[in-house]
Design a protein that fits this description.
Blueprint (H helix, E strand, L loop, with lengths): L18 E2 L20 H4 L12 E2 L34 H18 L4 H42 L2 E3 L7 H6 L15 E3 H5 L6 H29 L8 H8 L10 H16 L7 H16 L3 H4 L2 H20 L2 H12 L5 H21 L23 H31 L6 H16 L3 H4 L2 H9 L33 H24 L9 H25 L4 H4 L11 H17 L3 H11 L5 H18 L4 H9 L16 H4 L12 E2 L3 E2 H10 L4 E5 L7 E6 H14 L8 E3 L15 E2 L10 E3 L4 H11 L3 E6 L2 E7 H11 L11
Parallel strand pairs: 1-2, 5-7, 9-10, 11-12
Antiparallel strand pairs: 3-4, 6-9, 7-8, 12-13
Helix pairs in contact: 3-8, 3-9, 3-11, 3-13, 6-8, 6-15, 7-24, 8-9, 9-11, 11-12, 11-13, 12-13, 12-22, 14-18, 14-19, 14-21, 14-23, 14-24, 15-18, 17-19, 18-19, 19-21, 21-23, 22-23, 26-27
């Protein structure tokens, strides 16, 4: 019965005194002993909205706001609390936009009255730019701090700098005069743990001691990270992008973007990256930036009291997050537009661009990597690509699509198993086990022992004359002794072949561990592991093509371009294309991904290979399923998200989806002037619907408007406190004029001010594809169904999600907080 209800989750059923003044989204989520897992019985009802007995009700925005709903006959004094939202509820986009227009008109009408009103008008106009500036500044500063701390703690697993404890390995050897070019990472100031503990720099004892210390530090960092997340901020785990997409679509998750989440995510992100787990910091940086945007929006009433306006700030913040994650301001804006934002007006585009610019400028000023770049793996190539190379680039795209499809299915299957078994109840143990396996297997292989960003840097880098990596151990056939930028293709040496075997093992290791790592209860991004997998595959393919061109330069495909002694193939370019293809296969991004990778490399010349690989990976991935990893996790967690990219192709009508069905009880409604306060209170106590259609009379069923349960509760409570003579037998009137009542009747209660006089309605013969489009494009919470003006039923966002699942042969009862 409850799953069939039309409007779900009300307030406190038994008491009207349960409405408490609530705090903002910044408040601490009391996470002691809480695991971020949506399997509990309470969570099963969160989206259903069943107001179970004892549920305590809190407001999302807190405090008093002006109730300016659209087309309402406003009271002289707005009722405090009307127009705000409960946790795990969807906002009414139309009402929020109308509130903002009303606020804007009010400010404009007063600005000529005095200099103070003019100042307030200017402050209001500039507050949008101020909030994105503050967000950009904070995002850039936090990203710099995270980069520096993660580098230092990653090197701490291997040793320590005695001359300056706060220096990482590279910085420690910068000022040393005893460093040779071949062994640039060795200097007397840097001591490995074996040298410090047993006094040996070489030998089996040294290797075993360094191995043990590496595992010890990895487990310590992982344990500290998961403990902080579990105790202080359960919402700080994961990448955060699925939840941010859901929040930007209009869903309320209180505490997800609060100050405690920000603080714990910043600290634990450093620990998680330093632990060596197969994860990245780029996705969580978007969450960190959105936390900054949310916190700063509370400084400006324009945004703190309007959920739709706040989401414009969050869109700009997500652009700033990608800007500092990849050093790609334009890519960040496109990422926000293509991947996360639900509503993206032109004004938000400009502010996102500005936020990304400010964040990138701050990060560049901090210079966390010491290379005057925004990212560690910035590269430049000097050789062009040739037409025949499109074939291996497309093959890398196919590999990226296959990897994406495999990863999404395997990771979702594992996450679903985690939810449905006892294993999910022990998140700390899971993180420790994954970290231990990762550390034990990673240490022997130099490519898996490296920080993932450094691994990508090494794979992207072209082999110049000054490179000492084993990937550049070619047999030198040059007669010339001069050093040139473009070294001709050469036969691979033993170092290259051993590096290829190590890379193959690293590829298998990364693929397996990333499946089990993404979704554990620490901050974990997916961008860097996916790029590493693609970069490894790309480098292997690049070396193979290079050797093929060297030994068979007389083949017709190589004949025109690859002459003897020419620098024909760049293996680093293949690594870059492979990285883009694998990231595209997992996330299904296209335009923004190409721009991000282009900004990483600074080469316009390589846009065509990138586009070819990314589009191929998307097509191959879509052949196995159209969902990206973020949409798959949204569906797994049961968030009410209508994806604008999905097509609704079924020929059903609104009458097929609306509630009540034939077997259901009749629709719970209010009449415009025939009900008493007690009648409405009884209706609210007996049902758990979130709102009630208001009709002229039970006989006519003509629609008048729509009243939200929450607004009714607050309005009745407020009237009883402030107006004399309001009792249980008082007539409630939603009409413009109060009907004539007997002289001895108690004072009537006028509630027209909380009535939505223009609810969205469709007829019972409206095709569902049009209804779905209306819900997506207008962000509706519900839509009423009529026939010749008479009310028939109601369709909510959850009804559409259930119907979509049903048409896709899924169990409709299992999709909401399963």
């Amino acid at each position: 019965m409850e799953s069939e209800q039309l409007f779900h989750r009300g307030y406190y059923r038994n008491s009207y005194n349960s409405i408490t003044s609530a705090s903002s989204d910044e408040e601490l989520l009391d996470g002691a002993g809480v695991i971020m897992d949506f399997q509990t019985s309470e969570d099963d009802n969160l989206l259903d909205g069943d107001a179970s007995i004892g549920t305590h009700y809190t407001m999302t925005n807190g405090g008093t706001i002006n109730s300016s709903t659209h087309l309402l006959d406003l009271l002289d004094e707005p009722i405090p609390g009307v127009g705000t939202y409960d946790d795990f509820h969807t906002i009414d986009w139309v009402r929020e936009k109308c509130k903002d227009r009303e606020r804007h008109r009010r400010i404009n009408s007063k600005k000529k009255e005095s200099a103070w009103e003019m100042t307030k008008s200017l402050y209001d106009a500039w507050s949008g730019w101020l909030v994105v500036t503050l967000t950009g500044l904070a995002s850039g500063a936090l990203a710099g701090l995270i980069d520096i701390a993660a580098d230092w703690m990653t090197d701490l697993k291997e040793g320590i700098c005695l001359s300056a404890l706060w220096f990482n390995h590279e910085q420690c050897c910068w000022g040393s005069n005893e460093t040779t070019f071949e062994e640039r990472d060795k200097c007397p100031q840097w001591k490995t743990w074996a040298e410090l503990i047993i006094g040996q720099a070489e030998g089996p004892g040294s290797y075993i001691m360094n191995y043990i210390m590496y595992i010890f530090w990895a487990l310590s960092f992982a344990f500290l990270a998961v403990s902080l997340v579990k105790v202080f901020a359960p919402y700080a785990c994961g990448s955060g992008i699925p939840e941010i997409k859901t929040i930007l679509s209009g869903f309320i998750i209180r505490g997800y973007l609060g100050k405690w989440t920000l603080m714990i995510k910043t600290i634990t992100l450093v620990l998680a990256v330093a632990s060596g787990l197969s994860l990245g910091k780029e996705g969580p940086l978007v969450h960190v930036a959105c936390c900054c945007g949310n916190i700063f929006s509370y400084l400006f009433p324009k945004y703190s009291t309007n959920e739709a306006k706040k989401r414009e700030v969050l869109s700009a913040a997500s652009a700033a997050g990608v800007s500092v994650a990849f050093g790609a301001p334009i890519g960040g804006v496109l990422f926000s537009l293509e991947e996360v934002s639900y509503y993206f007006p032109l004004k938000t585009l400009w502010r996102s661009f500005f936020a990304a610019l400010v964040a990138a400028f701050v990060l560049r000023s901090i210079n966390p990597f010491g290379n005057s770049r925004l990212v560690l793996f910035y590269v430049e190539y000097h050789t062009p690509w040739y037409l025949f190379e499109l074939l291996p680039f497309i093959l890398l795209g196919v590999f990226g699509g296959l990897w994406g499809a495999f990863f999404i299915r395997a990771n979702i299957a594992w996450c679903r198993r985690r939810k449905s078994t006892k294993f999910g109840k022990y998140p700390v143990l899971e993180v420790i086990i994954v970290a231990a396996i990762t550390a034990v297997i990673a240490f022997p292989n130099p490519y898996t022992r490296l920080n993932t960003s450094e691994l990508i840097k090494e794979l992207f880098t072209d082999c110049g004359p000054l490179e000492s990596s084993s990937l550049c151990d070619y047999r030198n056939d040059m007669n010339a002794s001069k050093i040139v930028d473009d070294i001709p293709d050469r036969p691979a040496g033993t170092g290259v072949y051993s590096a290829i075997w190590q890379l193959c093992l690293a590829l298998i290791f990364k693929i397996i561990m990333t499946v089990f790592t993404f979704g554990i209860k620490v901050p974990s991004g997916l961008f860097i592991p996916s790029m590493a997998i693609g970069a490894i595959a790309g480098r292997i393919v690049g070396i193979a093509v290079e050797q093929l061109a060297y030994y068979h330069h007389d083949w017709f495909i190589f004949k025109e371009w690859c002459e003897v002694g020419a620098d024909c193939i760049t293996p680093g370019l293949y690594a870059m294309v492979g990285a883009a293809a694998c990231l595209g296969g997992v996330t299904r991004m296209t335009v923004s991904l190409v721009v991000i990778v282009f900004e990483l490399t600074g080469g316009l010349e390589y846009i065509v290979p990138l586009m070819a690989a990314v589009m191929t990976s998307k097509w191959v991935g879509d052949a196995f399923g159209r969902e990206g990893i973020y949409e798959a996790h949204i569906r797994l967690n049961g968030y009410p998200f209508l994806d604008a990219k999905e097509e609704f192709t079924h020929t059903t009508l609104a009458a097929d989806v609306m509630r009540p069905r034939r077997s259901d009880p009749p629709l719970a409604v209010l009449t415009q002037d025939n009900m008493t306060v007690e009648d409405i209170e009884n209706l609210i106590n007996e049902t758990s619907y979130n709102g009630f259609p208001v009709i002229m009379s039970k006989e006519s069923q003509r629609l008048v408007g729509f009243a939200l349960r929450r607004d009714l509760t607050i309005a009745i409570e407020s009237a009883r406190k402030k107006q004399e003579g309001i009792v249980g037998s008082s007539r409630v009137c939603f009409a413009q004029h109060t009907p004539s009542l007997p002289a001895e009747s108690p004072r009537p209660l006028k509630l027209r001010s909380i009535l939505d006089m223009s609810p969205f309605t469709v007829t019972d013969h409206t095709p569902m594809e049009i209804v779905v489009d209306i819900f997506r494009k207008l962000g509706l919470r519900q839509c009423l169904v009529t026939h010749n003006g008479r009310l028939l039923g109601i369709i909510t966002k959850k009804d559409i999600l259930r119907h979509t699942a049903q048409t896709a042969n899924q169990d409709p009862a299992s999709i909401m907080f399963n």
